Amino acid sequence: MSWLDRLKTGLTRSTTKLGDSLAGLATGTMPLDDARLDAIEEALIAADLGPAVAGRIRTRLADIKFSKGIDESGLKTAVAAEVTAVLAPVARPLAITAFPRPHIILVVGVNGSGKTTTIAKLARCFTELDYTVMLAAGDTFRAAAIEQLRIWAGRIGVPVIAGEQGADAPGLAFEAVKAARDAGTDVLIIDTAGRLQNKAGLMDELAKMRRVIQKLSPAAPHDTILVLDATTGQNALNQIEVFQQVAKITGLVMTKLDGSARGGVLVAAAERFGLPIHAVGVGEGMDDLRPFEAGDFGAALAGS
User: I need a surface site. Which of 18, 20, 136, 280 has the fewest CB within 10 A?
Assistant: First the structure.
């Protein structure tokens, strides 16, 4: 399957819900009236695009008027174009720019979001671009996260800095930055804990982690990426809000676009927060994470 086909498959839940609704609202030779425009707006909200985006698309469709009517394909194409217009300004590949090296990426997200596997996939992408990569197992709260990152590092063939469960995470981050700098490594990716039930403690830990990193690299972390689970729907917006407070996030990666996903929420996130969207993942394999393309996502979501 092509990447676009896999993306369409991954967005099946959202696409089916939205596509079925739009198919019934195409007007043939009749202009789009207010009742149909209202129904289109409701269908977009139901597909997790959010009220702001849905209202924006309704207004755009009303402006175009479609006085000669619009068929199913035309309506889906029009919606895809408007979704793409929302997403295009935030579609931004993750670039390695720091000098001197390493370029330091802090990865945050709730437990179970796919954070650790996303780190491995990013590492794989960077090694394929001929960057040297080091990982740091900064989620010292969970032994499973430490072991998982060790296993992924072994598979990819990159070094990992790891301690025991309960080790001081900021201290480990400091050692990782020092090791990466001494080795001349291009990219250091640091995992972090995701226990939001103790928001104050997590905020303190991440703030301390940033401070100790900056002792060695004043401009770091160069990126702080939030990993979102696409199956959580509107809850993803709450996670962005919280992690903006605790981690000063600079960009997003969405995982688990696997057919059960509610991927429309990524459009709502783009409209509401304007954060760069770096990549999306459609499965568990090492090649299942790709740079985010607004046009592909818009077409896949609208089923056009």
Answer: 20
In a shared domain, residues 150 and 194: yes
Give the whole-angstrom CA distance, residue 76 versus residue 70: 10
Q: CB–CB of 76/304 below 8 Å?
A: yes
The residue ranges of DSSP E strands in 216-292, in sequence order, are: 223-229, 251-255, 277-281, 289-291
Cα separation, 14 vs 295, in Å, equals: 16
pLDDT digits (tens, 9 = 90+) for 208-217: 999 999 999 9
Please answer whether residues 218 and 181 qualify as being in contact, where contact means their C-beta atoms are separated by less than 8 angstroms.
no
Residue range 89-145, pLDDT digits in tens:
999 999 999 999 999 999 999 888 889 999 999 999 999 999 999 999 999 988 999
* Contact call for residues 269 and 252 (beta carbons, < 8 A): yes
| Count of C-beta atoms within a 10 Å radius of residue 247 | 23
**CA dihedral over 117, 118, 122, 123, signed as positive or negative:** negative
Domain of residue 169, CATH code: 3.40.50.300
Q: Which domain holds residue 67?
A: 3-90
Q: What is the pTM of this model?
A: 0.91
Q: What phi-psi label fits residue 108: left (phi over 0), alpha (psi between -120 and 50 degrees) or beta?
A: beta
Cβ proximity of 23 and 72 under 8 Å: yes
Distance CA(209)–CA(198), nearest Å, equals 16
